[in-house]
Input
Amino acid sequence: MANIKSQIKRNRQNEKRRDRNKAVRSELKSRVKSARTAVDSGSGEAADQTRLAQKRLDKAAARGRIHKNQAARRTSRLMKRAAKKA
Output
């Protein structure tokens, strides 16, 4: 456990960031999964789901929650899958 005041504060900040990042990544997984199932089932809302997932991926990358290349890769895979089904 840290004894220095600045390190105690740094630990609190890191914990907040970790929780925020965890929540964002969890939401990303949910959005991508729902988009993937919508595309695979061929439902009418597949386009909306993929657009929403792509928007969340881009936003997470812009804010530094995930790496920009990871966001690009996941978006590419999702769009490729959607194009193949359409």
Notes: The chain has one domain: 5-85. The two ends are 55 Å apart (CA to CA).
